[in-house]
Specification:
This protein is an alpha/beta fold. It has helices spanning 16-40, 59-66, 79-86, 167-182, 218-234; strands at residues 4-5, 11-12, 48-52, 92-100, 104-111, 116-120, 123-127, 133-137, 147-149, 153-155, 163-164, 189-194, 199-204, 209-213, 240-246, 249-254. Its main location: membrane.
Length: 260
């Protein structure tokens, strides 16, 4: 190598900087080539899928709905698409999919809960608290869930909210059921009938009828009903009509019409 000296008398090495840059570029090429080789190998191929927090929906159903392909690189899988596929299942409210390198996916779901049953043209439609249809069956277990009659359904599809002419009153019925849960009265409710002009009729398991107005404070109504039913029980009295349509005013009548 030829020596070169600057004006300050110090020796300089011509070409040393270029050699260093060339070496770094060569190392980068090898690194990228190695990374490409790893990505193209089966090292990141999907081998395991773990499904968490599911109870109503079987793991096999979730995997089938996800449309995941095993032995495909998990780096090429569109996680949002997988999540959307899973939420097409009526009972799945939300799905979250995460990669766990090198070869695992974790699916975490949040499920919808059966909240009430709508009676419609010989079918029994299970819905959640938001009115989303979960399933439709030909029969149901009596007193399994509150049965709602009188819903004027225009169309329904699994996994979507029920469409009905009296949808607002239907949702108010679900608010009533929520109020019954908060006041430990759910087991006392047998059926809810949606009547005309925003009127609800609740049937209790012991044969009483309760009239309620749409939009009322249903928690207050359920607390009042709880006290009334306790009093009726102490008198061994059933088969009455309890009118709770007007807040602060309660009327109890025998079905024959005698008022108390």
């Amino acid at each position: 190598m030829e020596d070169h000296y600057g004006k300050d008398g110090k020796r300089k090495f011509k070409g040393k900087g270029k050699g260093y840059v060339s070496l770094m570029l060569l190392l980068m090429v090898f690194a990228l080539w190695g990374l490409y080789g790893i990505l193209q190998s089966d090292f990141f191929n999907l081998k395991t899928v773990v499904v968490k927090d599911h109870q109503k929906v079987m793991e096999e159903e979730i995997l089938e709905a996800s449309k995941l392909i095993f032995d495909r690189s998990i780096l090429k899988i569109d996680l949002e698409e997988v999540e959307e596929n899973i939420t097409f299942l009526p009972y799945i409210r939300q799905a979250k999919v995460e990669r766990k390198l090198p070869s695992k996916l974790i699916i975490q779901v949040k499920e919808r809960e059966d909240y009430a049953i709508i009676s419609y043209m010989g079918k029994f439609i299970y819905i959640d608290k938001e009115g989303v249809i979960l399933k439709s069956v030909d029969s149901y277990i009596f007193n399994e869930l509150p049965l709602i009659n009188g819903t004027k359904i225009t169309s329904y599809k699994l996994g979507e909210k029920v469409l009905a002419e009296n949808f607002d009153t239907l949702m108010d019925s679900l608010v009533l059921i929520e109020a019954s849960k908060l006041t430990d009265m759910t087991e006392s409710i047998s059926e809810i009938d949606i009547l005309n002009k925003g009127l609800l009729r609740l049937s209790t398991v012991d044969g009483n009828e309760v009239l309620l107005a749409e939009g009322n404070n249903h928690v207050y109504s359920m607390l009042a009903l709880k006290d009334i039913m306790a009093a009726l029980y102490s008198m061994n009295r059933t088969n009455v009509i309890i009118d709770l349509r007007f807040e602060g005013h309660v009327t109890v009548k025998d079905r024959e019409g005698q008022e108390e």
